[in-house]
Design a protein that fits this description.
Layout: H1 11-44, H2 46-50, E1 65-68, E2 71-74, H3 91-100, H4 115-118, H5 123-134, E3 147-148, H6 158-165, H7 179-191, H8 195-198, H9 241-250, H10 261-270, H11 275-287
Antiparallel strand pairs: 1-2, 2-3
Helix pairs in contact: 1-5, 1-10, 3-5, 7-11, 9-10, 9-11
Length: 305
């Protein structure tokens, strides 16, 4: 009777099979993270801000101008190019930028980058968004310098601005509110950063948080950003939850108009969200207390953000 071969003869085969299984499992985990990160990416409309479509720029390579009362800011390259993009960034670098508004080199970002909202992102969403961005094609394109006059271009002044207007910290669910409402609050306040455009700012560029989502007559690129509180006269109080869902899905308003400008770009992202996420956003927005604001003249403010 022949003796059974020693187990050690099969160890290389077993090791190879184990490594193959682990590699497949890792690829599956990466794919799942990429898909989740894409959802965060769409909610945040990263492509809209970081692609200079009018200038013929490549996707996510930056260079898109954003005109503000303080000057013109240009979005950076967020492709994984190691020289001109964020390809050399670690997850910790990425998290520090999103949550704390600080670059890997240690300088403060200007709040044209909405880190005051992104600070509320969940840990897993930051990690998944990083995984998604690192899986995109790299583009070699250097960032354009901002066109901001003195004294606003002095970055050290951001230390004072942050003390006044930056409340760092992750999103905390509100007790007594259901899962859908809290999901909508998280998307509106953190990932989609709706308040960054739909909330008016003071002379120093800080958000007037007491007038959350009441619109901004001096919005980005000179656009008049509408009031989206539940005020029935100057806001969207007459809209239903389904009306808001439809706008986020198709860009169509209840009066059969279509949004354009900045909001049109936002819809390019929100139309890719799940039905549940769009509805959660709508449920939360419908719950925002009404704030009355002057209505623009007829025809003014249409097709804006």
């Amino acid at each position: 009777m022949r003796a059974a071969p020693p187990l050690r003869r099969f160890l290389p085969v077993i090791a190879a099979l184990l490594l193959a299984w682990l590699a497949c499992d890792a690829r599956a985990a990466d794919e799942a993270a990429i898909q989740r990160g894409e959802n965060v990416f769409n909610a945040a409309d990263c492509v809209g801000c970081h692609t200079d479509v009018k200038g013929g720029g490549k996707r996510l390579s930056g260079g898109r101008p954003l005109a503000t009362p303080f000057g013109t800011f240009f979005s950076p390259n967020i492709t994984p190019d190691k020289e001109t993009g964020i390809g050399a960034w670690s997850l910790a670098d990425f998290e520090r930028a999103l949550r704390h508004g600080v670059s890997p080199e240690g300088f403060y970002y200007f709040p044209a980058f909405p880190y005051p909202s992104f600070t509320k992102l969940h840990d897993e969403d930051v990690a998944d968004l990083y995984t998604y961005l690192m899986a995109q094609p790299p583009v070699a394109q250097r960032n354009k310098p901002h066109q901001v006059g003195l004294p606003f271009r002095w970055r050290f002044l951001q230390a004072g601005w942050r003390l006044l207007f930056f409340d760092e910290g992750r999103f905390q669910p509100v007790a007594g509110k259901d899962v859908e409402w809290n999901r909508g609050a998280y998307l509106v306040e953190a990932a989609a950063h709706c308040g960054e455009c739909h909330t008016p700012r003071n002379l120093l560029g800080g958000l007037k948080t007491s007038r959350f989502l009441s619109g901004d007559p001096n919005g980005p690129d000179g656009q008049k950003v509408p009031n989206i509180t539940s005020d029935p006269g100057s806001g969207i109080g007459k809209w239903s939850v389904d009306d808001i869902v439809e706008l986020l899905k198709s860009g169509q308003t209840p009066d059969f108009d279509f949004v354009g400008g900045g909001m049109g770009e936002v819809v390019n992202g929100t139309k890719l969200l799940s039905d549940a996420d769009r509805r959660a956003i709508a449920v939360f927005i419908k719950s925002v207390p009404p704030i009355s604001t002057p209505k623009p003249p007829p025809g003014e403010g249409k097709k804006t953000s």
